[in-house]
Amino acid sequence: MDSTQPEVAYDFSPMLIVYKDGKVNRLTGNDVVPTSLDPKTNVESKDVVYSSENGLTVRLYIPKNVSQNQKLPLLVYIHGGGFCIESPFSPLYHNYLNSLVAEANIVVVSVQYRRAPEHHLPCAYDDSWTALKWVASHVNGSGPEDWLNSHADFEKVFFSGDSAGANIAHRMGIKHGLEKLEGVNVEGIVLCHPYFWGNEAVANETADENKRKFVGALWRIAYPETTGCDDPWINPVVDPNLAKLGCRRVLVFVAEKDLLCARGWYYHQKLKESGWGGDVEVVQINGEEHVFHLFNPGCENAKAMMKKTADFYNNN
After folding, report:
1. Is 188 helix (H, G, I), strand (E, B) or coil?
2. What is the pLDDT of residues 8-35, one digit of tens each?
3. Which of 110, 163, 268, 293 is catalytic?
4. Which of 54, 97, 102, 169 would be 161's cystine partner, CB 3.0–4.6 Å?
């Protein structure tokens, strides 16, 4: 064996490898695409710095045919990737959000956050809340970004994300319920295949020790100071503040072949039982894997999921 090769500390292939010297090799999610006026969807995008302190930006999306001062529902989207990979600038998310904006006729703010393991949680949560406060600074039409001043309807704000991003979106809903973004009405939250977990398996969840260890180990890499897989930030059903979720409606998507499928159903059940006063719906898509809609957006199941999501943003 070549002694000059760094020693592996954690191998999370096909996502990333972490070496004992601290180096991180991200195996996927590294591609980026520029902002554009997308010719297929007629959706325009641009990048705007929201945290100069940490060098973080949001990617904004808007339908090109929006009329002057026309108000549209506003979605704040948080990307997935186990808190460790991907970004708002990846083709996976850029293409998805172009399509969603065209389908739903909404404004989107796609959030960049500092990623683990170089930046441990709660960095991603803190950055996402900072981004939300930046968004809320536009409530009176006098914020730094004209698209939000002119076109964001702050009576119809939504949070969403996939996988780890869905986990963060849920946490932002709890934080809004506790602290309130002034002038912002969070109408609903859409969680796509949320990365929730727990020490004990729930009904229909895998008992395979190796699979369970993988999910738990990824969480510990992202958040070394965690109390474990029953930390409320990964297992929201044990959170004493679950009933304070700060929105009126929640839509949870799960995929039949996803390791996290049963956990999404369990979240749905426990949110209903928590005393929270809103409406929660879970939609299971059979025959599909984790975040299939991002990797295979042209399939019929992904199209149906897109339509259901767009309807959620447009129907009170």
Report:
1. strand
2. 999 999 999 999 998 999 999 999 999 9
3. 163
4. 169
